[in-house]
Every structure is written in C-alpha cells, then in structure tokens.
Amino acid sequence: MSAETRTEGSAAPSPVPPPVLVDAEAGVPASAAGAAARRALLAHPALLLAGIVLASLNMRAALASVAPLVGEISGAFGLSSTASSLVTSVPVLFLGVGALVAPWLGRRFGAERVLLGALLLLAVGILARVLPSVYALYGGGILVGTAIALLNVLMPGLIKRDFPDRAAAMTSVYTGAMIAGATVAAAAAVPLEKALGGGWEGSLGFWSLLAVVAAVAWLPQVLIARGRTGHAVRAVPAAGARPVSVWRSALAWQVTLFMGLQSLWSYVLIAWMPTIFTDHGMSRSTAGVVFAFNNLIQVAGAFVVPLLAGRMRSQRPLIVLVTTLVAAGYAGLMVAPVEGAWLWSAVLGVGQGGAVGLALTLIVLRSGDAVTAARLSGMAQTVGYLLAAAGPLAAGALHQATGSWTLPICVVLGVCVAALTVGLFAARDRTV
Description:
Elements: E1 6-7, E2 22-23, E3 28-29, H1 32-42, H2 45-64, H3 70-77, H4 81-109, H5 111-128, H6 134-162, H7 167-195, H8 200-205, H9 208-224, H10 231-234, H11 250-279, H12 284-310, H13 316-335, H14 341-365, H15 370-388, H16 390-402, H17 406-426, E4 430-431
Parallel strand pairs: 1-4
Antiparallel strand pairs: 2-3
Helix pairs in contact: 2-6, 2-7, 2-9, 3-4, 4-5, 4-6, 4-11, 4-15, 4-16, 5-6, 5-9, 6-15, 7-12, 7-14, 11-12, 11-14, 11-15, 11-16, 11-17, 12-14, 13-14, 13-17, 14-15, 16-17
C-alpha cells in the first residue's frame, strides 16, 4: 500500500505518522511499561505467529462441523427446516452481538487476555451443544458465536498493531488458517461420527480440543504482555491523534456492508450446502466430502486475494472477480446441483475464500492506523454478522415455504449484485 493513500473525501496525500507505539485497543500511545511488554512480545515472533494461526483455525471449525450433521441433529430433536436453520443462524447472530462488546473488552483487558478467554469460552460452548437438550444446543451456539466474534474483531487490530508493514500478508495467513480449520472440520464431521461411536455428539464435541490447544498457545503471550493494558495506558494522552468516528464514515459503511453481504452468502452455504446436495439425491457422506472440498478450495482464494489486494491501490478488479465467481457458483447449484457439484464447489470456494480475505483486508487497508483498524473491525463485524445471520434463517424459511431451493438461491444472487455495488465503493483508494 502506498504511503500516499488518500483519506476519505480528499485527494491530498496523508502525512506519514511518526513512529509512535500505539495501543490498538486503548487508542493511545503505550506507557513505558506497555512499550516494554510490547517489545518483549514482538521478540518472540514465532510464538506470536503460532498463537495467531491456532486461534484462526478455530474461527470457523465449530461452525463448519455442524453443516454435514444438520440432518441428524434435526432428527434427534424433531426440528423443522426453519428451526434447523437456527442451529447455524444463532451462532452467526451472536457473531454480531459479541462484536459489540469485543472492542470494550479489548480496551479493558487487552487483546491477548481477551483472545485467551474467547478460546476457553469457545471450548465450553462446543461442549454445551452436545448436551441432550435443544436449549443447550442453542445456548451452546450462543457461546460459540460470542467467542468467535471476539476472535474475529480483535485479530485485525492485533495484526495492524504488531505487523504494520506486513498487514496484508499476515491477513492472508490468518484467513487461510481460518478456512483450513473449516475444511478439516467439514471433512472430518461424518468420519468422526463413525469413529467415535456413531453419534453426532462426539463429532461436534471433538472440536473443543482444538480450542483448548489454541488457548494453551496464547497463555505465554498473556504472561509476556501482562501490564500492557490498564488504567496507566489509557490515561496517557494521544498527542496529535485525531479521533475517528467510523460510524459516521461513508467509506466505513461501505466496507461494513461488503463484509456483511459476503458473510451472508457464505453462511447460507455453511448451513445448507450439504442439504442442497442430499435433497437432490446425493448421499450424505458424499455431500460432506463435496462441502469439505468447497472449504479446501477457499484456502487458495483466502491466501492469494489479500496478497494481491495489498499490492493494488484500488481493489475493484478483485471485487468484480470474487462476486462474479460466487454468483456463477450459486447459479450452478440452481441449474445442475448434483451433476456439477464438484465444479460449483470449486468456483464457489475460490470466490468465497477470496471474498472473506478481501473483506478482512479492506478493514486493514481502509484504516489509517491500528486504532482505526480496531474500531472499523468492530463496526464491520457487528453490523456485518447481524446482517449475515438472516441468511441461513431466510433460506431455510423460503425452502420450507416453497419446497425448493430455487427461490433461496435467486435471493442470494440478488445479494451478490448488492455486494458488487457496495464493494466497488469500498475498494477505492481511500482511508477512513
């Protein structure tokens, strides 16, 4: 990204900010103790990278592991199509609700401690979902969504803070890891069910182990960064800093809407892709493998697109590319879902992975500093995931009402058009 990136509504080059160490959560220059803790943390880049990758592996695994098992879960509790969609819609809804409190928690306790707590909460939520109660199923989904929201919101600000010169590359690493976790979880759902005794409960509960492993990896970072946040840090005046209200920025809203619309089309697929295939005669195990293949292909898009985006002044060509691929894949699911299943899964995978990677990269690229990145991340993921939560629920309700997947897919094609429109504005060479 060029140093001459323009601020929103201005063609004048932005002044290069002084090399002041800023706390991304608190929005102020770090205290002496905070700066020392930051240097100690950055002295262990391998530890920091391992923590980011392991946390990222958990950011979709608990969601993707449900989709191949929705039929069995619905059967176990006697759920309708609309009620079944809540199994995936509830966590997505709380991705938005949890994002509301993530910035405050980051300011109060520091990103490292909140990320550790989020991973532990995620493990508890995953285990709660397998209890023999429909209330626990949905309650566990609330905990899972809230935990993932904290991971989602704090990660971009942390990357902008600790890797300011490699933000796009690090975004590609963590989005790639996020989708890799989803791929493994989707592919392993049915085999784990068989290996662990034939019940869906063991397959879902297994992924709590991954969250615990990631929490263990974050513990040393919490100890190293201890003292970096707190009243002493927040009391330091932000000399020369101009507070940015992202909620009043048109550019911030454009980034937010693109985040929400691409999340909507992705979570519709996470909730319903295997069911679309099985409703057209594909076996459940094959549908799970095709769904896992879709997630695997997303890794390529999520890794490559952010790298390309970081080298471009305007990301408009990438907006056109990813939205066109997603629209083509959805159209294929409507016309020939089983016959072209592998092709549509591949096309959708590249588009989905590229879109989520691009959405997260836009948060970083459209932000002038780490503080704005943290605020824009909170806004984009609060509003974006609240919008996305409507996708699986609406698709399930439309399918139940019509007995077909044609109308739900047509609605998603309209979402693709809207994402293309707003994305072209979000991809302009501006900063909030």
